[in-house]
UniProtKB/TrEMBL annotation:
Domain of life: Eukaryota
TM regions (residue ranges): 36-60, 80-102, 123-144, 150-171, 178-198, 227-250
Name of this chain's protein: Uncharacterized protein
Annotated keywords: Membrane, Transmembrane, Transmembrane helix
GO CC terms of this entry: membrane
């Protein structure tokens, strides 16, 4: 049964804008598989794949771009932003879990109740990256794609990466917070500013591609399109949060090794404050 009042008070508490969390071991394993080694393998393989994709994107992109492509226009494309972030974050994922596995047995055993600083940074970057990957996929298929033949590059960039993010959100045990929506929205706002600067300098898509993001013609169109992107980032985050809730419901019903009780964090004042809200909204009042 859902206790919606308790959920609203706890999940939407201002402290959840930050990245404090009582169970850092949730960032080094799957939701229903406790093997850290399997998780290391998962992270390492994808880190190698995305680094390889980034190298291809940056070094041999001339094979799938027009002859008049200008390389300093790289940052006019949100796709390129996500390619870099995907490689960076997947590498950070692998480094963090290997570091914890080798040097932090207390976290591996579930005995440490604070978030290491590097795990907090990784959580922030993952939140932004997952959102942007899905947002770029939506932008491409809704605004950019005009019915032409779909290349393998487009399938991987605007399909494969989104599938990875979705599966990752469903099978790993990392939490997702509603209030973290502000971080991908800030990142998209930064892209919108870059978009405007390139437009002012007459650099945006000037001969780089027969296609361009809609709105790169007038100031009004630029602002309205960028606003759609920012709002879209919020919608995508709600989608990811929905996947998180589905994951918890499935795990609570099917994973025998999954924790299903409610956790409390004692304070020095002898009062208690709930820090972990994974199952708050799944319990009866």
């Amino acid at each position: 049964m859902c206790n919606c009042k308790r959920f609203a008070l706890e999940e939407l508490h201002p402290r959840n804008f930050l990245f404090d969390y009582l169970y850092p071991e949730d960032f080094i394993r799957f939701q229903c598989i406790q093997s850290v080694f399997t998780y290391i393998l998962w992270r390492s393989v994808w880190a190698i794949c995305f680094i390889f994709m980034l190298i291809l994107n940056g070094t041999i992109s001339d094979y799938w771009t027009p002859p008049n492509y200008i390389h300093y226009q790289w940052f006019t494309y949100l796709t390129h932003w996500t390619s870099f972030l995907l490689a960076f974050v997947s590498t950070m994922d692998a480094i963090c879990v290997i570091q914890i596995y080798l040097h932090r047995p207390d976290i591996v055993k579930g005995e440490f109740r604070q978030m290491p600083w590097y795990v907090k940074i990784n959580w922030l970057c993952t939140t932004i990256n997952s959102n942007l990957v899905l947002l770029v996929t939506l932008i491409h298929w809704i605004f950019v794609y005009k019915g032409e033949r779909v290349s393998i590059f487009a399938v991987v960039t605007y399909g494969g990466t989104a599938l990875y993010v979705t599966i990752n959100a469903l099978i790993t045990s990392s939490p997702i917070r509603i209030l973290h929506v502000v971080y991908p929205m800030v990142m998209v706002t930064m892209y919108a500013v870059t978009n405007f600067v390139y437009q002012e300098a007459n650099l945006a898509n000037s001969g780089a591609s027969p296609k361009s993001y809609p709105g790169w013609r007038t100031y009004k169109d630029i602002l309205s399109t960028d606003l759609v992107f920012v709002v879209g980032a919020g919608v995508v985050h709600m989608y990811l949060y929905t996947l998180y809730v589905i994951r918890l419901l499935v795990a609570r019903a099917w994973c025998t090794n999954n924790r299903t009780f409610i956790y409390w964090q004692p304070l020095e004042s002898c009062n208690t404050i709930r820090q972990d809200v994974r199952y708050t909204y799944l319990t009866a009042s």
